[in-house]
Amino acid sequence: MAAEPPTIDGRLDDRAWQWAPWTEQFVDIEGMSRPAPLFRTRAKILWDDARLYIGAELEEPHVWATLRKQDEIVFHDNDFEVFIDPDADTKRYAEIEINALGTIFDLFLERTYRDGGPADHGWNVAGLRSAVFVEGTLNDPRDEDRGWSVELAIPWASFADLIRQELPPRPGETWRMNFSRVEWRIQIIDGTYRKVAGLREDNWVWSPQGVIDMHRPERWGHVTFLAGP
Predict the structure, then answer these.
(1) SS (HEC) of the chain
(2) Average pLDDT of 200-226?
(3) pLDDT-based confidence at 161, cuts 50/70/90?
(4) pTM of the model
(5) 108: how many CB neighbours lie within 10 A of its CB?
(6) Percent of the chain's residues with pLDDT above 90
(7) C-alpha angle with apex 35: 24 to 139, nearest 5 degrees?
(8) Residue 78 to residue 215: CA distance in whole angstroms
(9) According to the model, what pLDDT value does residue 228 have?
(10) Is the Cβ–Cβ distance between 220 and 207 less than 8 Å?
(11) How far is it, in rounded angstroms, from Cα 216 to Cα 177?
(12) FRET pair for 214, CA 20 to 30 Å: which of 34, 47, 84, 207?
């Protein structure tokens, strides 16, 4: 539990974040049998009586993004994604995506796609606060960047559609979560970033899925809420 809430500015340098350990570095979505990701990705989690806080650090030599309208399909850019199933029943769960411009795509699923969905793209995380910080220059291929970082502050009340039990969670309670990073291979043509034609995206994750499908909640990680640092 956070002693104080972090400032949501995209930087993970607040004193509050110092109490939270980093996750393991992300791996390929299919698991350790696949090549290691090209760039490091890791995340942190905090909570208090008001909100769930998620921070992520994404190493990236060329930070770019194009999508600016909320609920566009953000994973068509490089992005960071959060998946949350509060009661770990593999149903009624949320997904949040954010790109380096700070554009949000959030959706709610009654059940997984393989079980028929549907995905509600009109659902929004009520009261969500988010920020991105780019350590470099966004959409400028003339130099190399160090990467970008993300902060999300999610009010507990926004989970009321997903869970029937009391919110916020009690110390010792465990939820299912996962974090994902979509990374497209790019090339620089005429001073502009372009995706390499014919190549699909890379998917790097905290808890590997075994297949290229993030919508397998039974394979997400376990997050247990602790009362102290």
Answers:
(1) CCCCCCCCCCCCCCHHHHCCCCCCCCEECCCCCCCCCCCCEEEEEEECCCEEEEEEEEECCCCCCCCCCCCCCHHHCCEEEEEEECCCCCCCEEEEEECCCCCEEEEEECCCHHHCCCEECCCCCCCCEEEEEEECCCCCCCCCCCEEEEEEEEEHHHHCCCCCCCCCCCCCCEEEEEEEEEECCEEEECCEEEECCCCCCEEEECCCCCCCCCCCHHHCEEEECCCCC
(2) 97
(3) confident
(4) 0.96
(5) 18
(6) 93
(7) 80
(8) 18
(9) 77
(10) yes
(11) 11
(12) 47
pLDDT given for residue 163 in this prediction: 82
Q: Which domains does the chain have, with CATH numbers?
A: 15-224 (2.60.40.1190)
Q: How confident is the model at residue 229 (pLDDT cuts 50, 70, 90)?
A: low
Read off the tokens for 221: 């990680």
pLDDT band, very low/low/confident/very high, at 21 (cuts 50, 70, 90): very high
Signed CA dihedral, 36, 13, 61, 190: sign only: positive
Is the distance from CB of 206 to CB of 196 less than 8 angstroms?
Answer: no
Are the CB atoms for 219 and 40 separated by under 8 Å?
no
Token reading at 129: 């606060």
pLDDT of 166 > 90? The answer is no
Q: Whole-angstrom Cα distance, residue 27 to residue 204?
A: 5
Mean pLDDT of 100-117: 96
- Strand 79-85 relative to strand 174-183, pairing: antiparallel
96 within 8 A of 128, measured Cβ to Cβ: yes
